């Protein structure tokens, strides 16, 4: 099957397998089937008008008798740049802000509590060019740059937490560049930021031309909807990176990415899911869509990213150049995974997660036990950098 015709693994299975076989294959590959969310008709109409796909599913948690369920609805945005890469920088950023505002409106209609965008979402992913200009002009302040102010408006308007991965310019320290994710509370306050801990130096993917490894450790951010962390892109290849976010108390770990099929297609649906199972948390992997081409000094045109997915602790599931052939996903500690979005179409994936699912996975013997986990925390706290305002109580 030609790559350009291959929408997703799920669609391929559905097309070629009898229904009974399909259910069994999905059970083996993806764990317990997720429940489809009943989303408003108006949201689907708005998504169609906005030219993006809308998908919703739920990771079911065990019903408890003495505690209220801790249910959180997450929005994972898989997008492409709407303008050619040689368009003036300000016009590109403005167009992306307008695009994301429309997607966030639909997310709000669907009751999303936390929304996360892809890696470096305000620009073409031009780091493979190794050219400084004009790409470094997309960098901005994480604290009060135009994109952070835009996201603060979104969070206040819709009452949702926003995770905004950008190219950061640290104006207080010599304009040093960082690959950063800014976390904004549902009230519009900047909770803090995290920086990409691991960067690739492989072929065209040598990002040290622009920025180096992050220096903020593994911060976790306390929000009204749970404790969240952001493991940016290449960090997903490093198991201890996931572990440290989990030890610091993260219940949901986002993995905003920009990766292509030829490099990561076989790893993509496994790494986030494995991290969810091993670290008893939910993981959400987000990629771009489209296809990237380049001519000499000009980074031009199209995009082909893989869709997003999400994963949960034992019991749930997640997913997400040449082409960006990896769709977004979500996964749970309970071994469940959401179906991936299209590899070619911008999408909003809405996994609904029950945060108590991670604890139930302990009881079922699917993750480390509470005693083992406590000893890990006691042994690791002294070498873990916490986000001062967000350490779980």
Outline the structure in words:
This protein has a single domain (72-383), classed as 4-Layer Sandwich (Nitrilase/N-carbamoyl-D-aminoacid amidohydrolase). Helices cover 27% and strands 23% of the residues. The protein has ten helices and 18 strands. It has an eight-stranded mixed sheet. The radius of gyration is 19 Å and the shape is globular. The N and C termini lie far apart (51 Å).
Which features does this protein show?
alpha/beta, 6-stranded mixed beta sheet, 393 residues, Nitrilase/N-carbamoyl-D-aminoacid amidohydrolase, beta-ureidopropionase activity
Summarize the structure.
The chain has 393 residues and is an alpha/beta fold. It is 27% helix and 23% strand.
Helical segment tally?
Answer: 10
CATH topology: Nitrilase/N-carbamoyl-D-aminoacid amidohydrolase
Order of helices and strands: HHEHEEHEHEEEEEEEHEHHEEEEEEHH
Contiguous low-pLDDT stretches (5 residues minimum) are 294-309, 312-326, 360-393
- How many beta-strand runs? 18
How many strands, which pairing sense, and closed or not: the largest β-sheet?
8 strands, mixed
Helix percentage range: 25-40%
What would the average pLDDT be, to the nearest integer?
79
User: Could you say how many structural domains there are in total?
Assistant: 1
Structural class by sheet pairing and helices: alpha/beta
Q: Supply Rg.
A: 19 Å
CATH superfamily annotation: Carbon-nitrogen hydrolase
Overall geometry comes to globular
- Portion in strands: 15-25%
CATH architecture: 4-Layer Sandwich
GO molecular function: beta-ureidopropionase activity; protein homodimerization activity
Keywords: Hydrolase
Pfam families: CN_hydrolase (PF00795)
Protein name: Beta-ureidopropionase 1
């Amino acid at each position: 099957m030609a790559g350009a015709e291959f929408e997703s693994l799920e669609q391929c299975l559905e097309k070629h397998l009898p229904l009974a076989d399909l259910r069994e294959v999905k059970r083996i590959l993806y764990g317990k089937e997720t429940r489809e969310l009943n989303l408003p008709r108006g949201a689907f109409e708005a998504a169609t008008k906005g030219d993006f796909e809308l998908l919703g599913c739920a990771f079911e948690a065990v019903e408890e008798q003495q505690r209220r369920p801790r249910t959180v609805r997450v929005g994972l945005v898989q997008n492409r740049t709407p303008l050619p890469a040689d368009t003036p920088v300000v016009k590109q950023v403005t167009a992306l802000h307008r695009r994301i505002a429309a997607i966030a409106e639909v997310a709000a209609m669907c009751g999303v509590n936390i929304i996360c965008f892809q890696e470096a979402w305000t620009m073409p992913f031009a780091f493979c060019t190794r050219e400084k200009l004009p790409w470094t002009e997309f960098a901005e302040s994480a604290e009060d740059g135009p994109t952070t102010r835009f996201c603060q408006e979104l969070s206040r308007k819709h009452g949702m937490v926003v995770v905004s991965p950008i190219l950061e310019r640290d104006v207080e320290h010599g304009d040093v560049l960082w690959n950063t994710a800014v976390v904004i509370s549902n009230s519009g306050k900047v909770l803090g930021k995290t920086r990409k801990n691991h960067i690739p130096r492989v072929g065209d993917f040598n990002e040290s031309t622009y920025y180096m490894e992050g220096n903020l450790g593994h911060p976790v951010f306390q929000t009204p909807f749970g404790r969240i962390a952001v493991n940016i892109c290449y960090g997903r290849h490093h198991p201890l990176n996931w572990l440290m976010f989990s030890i610091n108390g993260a219940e949901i770990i986002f993995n905003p990415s920009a990766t292509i099929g030829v490099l990561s297609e076989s790893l993509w649906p496994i790494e986030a899911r494995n991290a969810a199972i091993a670290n008893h948390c939910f993981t959400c992997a987000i990629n771009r869509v489209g296809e990237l081409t380049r001519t000499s000094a000009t980074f031009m045109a199209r995009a082909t990213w893989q869709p997003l997915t999400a994963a949960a602790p034992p019991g749930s599931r997640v997913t997400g150049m040449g082409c960006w052939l990896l769709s977004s996903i979500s996964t749970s500690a309970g071994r469940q995974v959401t179906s991936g979005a299209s590899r070619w179409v911008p999408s909003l994936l809405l996994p609904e997660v029950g945060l108590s699912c991670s604890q139930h996975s302990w009881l079922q013997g699917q993750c480390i036990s509470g005693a083992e986990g406590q000893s890990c925390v006691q042994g690791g706290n002294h070498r873990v950098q916490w986000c001062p305002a967000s350490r779980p109580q």
